[in-house]
Specification:
With about 425 residues, the chain is α/β, with parallel strands linked by helices. It has 14 helices and 16 strands. The chain has three domains: about 120 residues, no CATH class; about 100 residues, Elongation Factor Tu (Ef-tu), domain 3 (Beta Barrel), CATH 2.40.30; about 170 residues, 3-Layer(aba) Sandwich (Rossmann fold), CATH 3.40.50. The strands form five sheets. A six-stranded parallel beta sheet has the order 14-13-12-11-15-16, with helices on both faces. It has a three-stranded antiparallel beta sheet with strand order 5-6-9, with no helix packed on it. A three-stranded antiparallel beta sheet has the order 8-7-10, with no helix packed on it. It catalyses: NADPH + 2 O2 = 2 superoxide + NADP(+) + H(+). It comes from Bugula neritina (Brown bryozoan).
Length: about 425
């Protein structure tokens, strides 16, 4: 390989590291797929931290000025068809003064200018997380739910949350580097904050074992493992109290944030009604839960049952109407068994007062009926789940809104 004047081969080698950076985004994108995130979170977590190497290579890539620009002494337009005269000298003078041999100069590296800001912000965020990891977190209660789900109720000095937010949890006895995100399922009115954790991986299995979920009884609170909590993060769901009627739709895992939101709605509503605390406009909530299998979220059925009991106790049974739609996981024998128990007061699947529906909701019919029941009312529609259903609900909100009737205002929740 030839060596040019002032060329340092080692710098050229380092500069070519930028070529390897093309593989990094591919690895990151692949590991961000839902299957990897759900089943192999450790792979997702570690591969995403490749970006540190990515930024290091980006900085090194331009240090020696491999990318060069031509100076202005050579007139590109004028000399385009005079190639034979480029740099030709006769009697010590250029034949074409505007056409000397092109010369190139290294550009001043400027990568740092574009990435220094994000790097500084990232370092600050990491320092804040590092400091928070030393703040004491107490597991006040652990609850075992069906279908391999545990609920951790925790307390931490100075912790303040809003409905619909999430936190990161680290258990140093399991891993000193891994932080896992979990949606908060408690409400701001409760004296603790909680998460529901489904045991579906090495880390969650280790955590369940650490708190004693595999024993007959959980560990004594004083013997619970130490946890670090960072957060809460995310946009709080704040607009629900701007409407007299709300429609909440949760699909699949998108139902989780509504645990916190519905409890917050109930506490706010009952405080406003009984104690004249606040100015709650909300009078009615419709909740639609669409799931392929209720087993993974049996804990959510328990929450709905608890709300039903509280509403009956406060004589406010009309505040919440909830409908569960089971989209698959049932057959003819299952349907026959359900039909035999149709006259019972509680649902045979969930144990709730509201009966389970089988199949998918007829949104056109649902929105039409809601607009009839609440004419000339502004109705908030809140959804968390897949994008396809989001588009459908948005279209239904527009279709069934009218100037002289009900007006549906669509709000896509991003949790």
């Amino acid at each position: 390989m030839g060596v040019l004047k002032n060329e340092v081969p080692s710098w050229i080698a380092l500069s070519s590291l930028g070529d390897y950076n093309h593989s990094h985004p591919i690895v990151i994108v692949f590991s961000a797929t839902e299957f990897i995130r759900r089943s192999y979170f450790e792979i997702f977590w570690f591969t995403h931290h490749i970006f540190v190497i990515f930024f290091a290579f980006v900085l090194v890539h331009g240090l020696r000025g491999v990318v060069r620009s031509q100076d202005a002494s050579h007139d590109v337009l004028y000399c385009g068809d005079k190639f034979s005269d480029w740099g030709r000298v006769e009697n010590g003078v250029l034949v074409e003064p505007k056409c000397p041999l092109p010369e190139f100069q290294s550009n001043t590296p400027s990568t740092y200018f574009w990435i220094i800001g994000p790097i500084v912000l990232y370092i600050i965020e990491r320092l804040i997380r590092f400091a928070r990891s030393f703040q004491k977190v107490t597991i006040s209660k652990a609850v075992k739910h069906p279908s391999k789900v545990i609920e951790l109720q925790m307390q931490k000095d100075g912790f303040s949350m809003e409905a619909g937010q999430y936190i990161f949890i680290k258990c140093p006895s399991i891993s000193r580097t891994e932080w896992h995100p979990f949606t908060l399922t408690s409400s701001p009115e409760e004296d603790y904050f909680s998460v529901h954790i489904r045991i579906v991986g090495d880390w969650t299995e280790a955590l369940a074992k650490a708190v004693g979920a595999d024993e007959q009884e959980f560990q004594d609170p004083s013997k619970m493992p130490l946890l670090a909590v960072d957060g809460p993060f995310g946009t709080a769901s704040e607009d629900w109290d701007q409407y007299e009627v709300d429609i909440l739709v949760g699909a699949g895992i998108g139902v989780t944030p509504f645990a916190s939101i519905m409890k917050h709605m109930w506490y706010t509503y009952i405080q406003s009604k009984e104690n004249n605390v606040g100015n709650c406009k909300l009078k009615k909530v419709y909740f639609y839960w669409i799931c392929p299998d209720t087993n993974a979220f049996e804990w959510f059925s328990d929450l709905l049952g608890h709300l039903e009991d509280q509403m009956d106790e406060k004589n406010c049974a009309d505040f919440l109407t909830h409908k569960i739609f089971l989209t698959r996981g049932w057959d003819t024998n299952f349907a026959r068994n359900v039909a035999l128990h149709e006259e019972e007061e509680v649902d045979v699947v969930t144990g709730l007062q509201q009966k389970t529906n089988y199949g998918r909701p007829n949104w056109d019919q649902i929105f039409s009926k809601t607009s009839e029941d609440h004419p000339k009312t502004s109705i908030g529609v809140f959804f968390c789940g897949p994008a396809v259903l989001s588009d459908t609900l948005h279209a239904m909100s527009n279709k069934h809104s009218s100037a002289d009737g009900a007006k549906f205002v669509y709000n896509k929740e991003n949790f």
